[in-house]
Amino acid sequence: MADLHDRAEMLNRVNDIQADLIAFCGDLHNGSSAAEARPVAKALAGLDLPVLIVPGNMDHRNVVPEIWKSFGFRMMHCASFQFGKYGFLGMGGMTVKSPQKLADSARYYHEDGDVYRTLTKICKEISGSEFQIVMVHQPPRNFRDKIYSGEHTGCISLHRFIEEFQPDLALCGHIHEDWGEDHIGRTIVVNVGEMRRGYAALIELNDEIKVQWMEP
To answer: Mind listing the pLDDT tens digit for each residue in 155-175?
Structure first.
């Protein structure tokens, strides 16, 4: 899932789904204060599944880490995690060029090249995994990243990382209007869609990767 933007009631749509874990690709919140964010995090925790989560551009750095930790979420920003034979890498936020935005200590903003450098540094931590999964908020450039104007707004260095390292699966969100599945080489790229409107993906990882879609 991704992009719930504080619409906790939409989680009722996945109450009865059988799954092993939730991979949440950012924007659980909507620029919220701690008081606003806490009940939404509590609702996600109420699904009673392990939650791996990266922050989005609307999840504020000075709010979410403490709240997410209190509900037992695994923060995957610049981190790896092993879940059985599945290895996860994560980096949240989004790339910006403006020095003023980069200086905003409340936001998960970074330069484009930081994504490649970070994922390359930590990918060795899951090198022995049978399945390797990357969790990000912003899609890779030219893959499920097209906004309404037709412009591609994804991360260039994420595309480079996927192209070079070829993980099995790359999960993202952020660009609400370009949800769906794509490929970079053998890597399946899934923009899981905007959960605020009822979009999500149920992904089965066995000998082959199967993606089933939830739609409004």
So the answer is: 999 999 999 999 999 999 999
Selection from 178, 179, 158 nearest residue 170 by Cα: 158
CATH number of 8-214: 3.60.21.10
Q: What is the pLDDT of residues 172-212, one digit of tens each?
A: 999 999 999 999 999 999 999 999 999 999 999 988 899 99
- Output the pTM of the full model: 0.97
DSSP track, 139-208: PBTTSS-B-TTS-B--BHHHHHHHHHH--SEEEE-S-GGG-EEEEETTEEEEE---GGGT-EEEEEESSS
The pair of structure tokens assigned to 138 is: 């912003």
pLDDT digits (tens, 9 = 90+) for 23-39: 999 999 999 999 999 99
Helix and strand counts by DSSP (H, E) for the chain: 5, 13
Neighbours of 129 (CB within 10 A): 19
CB count within 10 Å of CB 163 equals: 12
Domains of the chain by residue range:
8-214
Cα(171)–Cα(2) distance, integer angstroms: 9
Burial 19-28 (b: 16+ CB within 10 A, else e): eeebbbbbbb
User: What mean pLDDT is predicted for residues 92-110?
Assistant: 96
The tokens of 47 are what? Answer: 């699904």
